[in-house]
Amino acid sequence: MTEQRTAIVTGAARGIGAGIALRLASDGYAVAVLDLDEAACATTVDKIIAAGGKALAVGVDVADEPGTQAAVERIATELGAPTILVNNAGITRDNLLFKLTVQDWDMVMNVHLRGSFLMSKAAQKYMTEAKFGRIVNLSSTSALGNRGQANYAAAKAGLQGFTKTLAIELGKYGITTNAIAPGFIETEMTAATAERMGISFDDFKAGASKAIPVGHIGKPDDIAHAVSFFVSEGAGFVNGQVLYVAGGPKA
Ligand code: NAP
Questions:
Q1: Which atom of ligand 1 is nearest to the CA of 115?
Q2: 137: nearest Cα among 192, 176, 190
Q3: pTM tops 0.70
């Protein structure tokens, strides 16, 4: 049997990240559950351990350079050299362009772009040494443009360029880099959007479902399933792709 691989999932205390962490643990990987607040990672970690898996809670801001470096080194020591990285941590700070503040522009860029850059840079060292690696970046259908999300859409489109470039640079080391662009997924992020728009989450979900060809919104497990494929051994020839997981060609 080959040695157990270690995966890092950022933003894994809740939502899509928690779903990805649970799925990768059930696939047999040791999982570093990374989020801003280490204590908040406990729910995900406890579920993995209760199911017989191996997990470590790691608190760090993905936009903090020394913090990410130290976190990845700690994961390598305590869990094993990380050869799988899922850059999932994300925030929204929505507003129409004329009201969008520089602070909200910078915050969104920092978490999504700087965060994915710093985490990938720290983890690639272990992947190149192992001559095996899998990086999955969370983009969004918003990359195609979405009213009120100039900052978020730019960051999510930027992640697609980042993905394709890492695919070209790192491919020769056995490392693949791909992106998943979810449509509407039921999490606290979409619940917060409904609240901001002044409508109930149920009404928001029902309205969104009507525009989605499969007739319903997505769940974190739908994204976790796609991640499970991208990080698998057999997906080594799939590199630099963006997979829209949105219940239709766009949503
Ligand atoms: P969520 O429920 O808001 O969870 C995001 C997690 O990321 C939270 O636990 C959050 O921690 C953490 N996080 C935020 N900033 C961080 C930082 N600087 N460092 C470390 N962790 C940080 O969001 P989600 O809906 O699961 O979304 C996950 C990813 O999918 C995001 O990249 C999002 O943009 C993308 N996505 C979501 C949807 C959707 O419909 N939900 C659609 C397309 C793409 P705190 O709780 O402490 O803030």
A1: 18
A2: 176
A3: yes
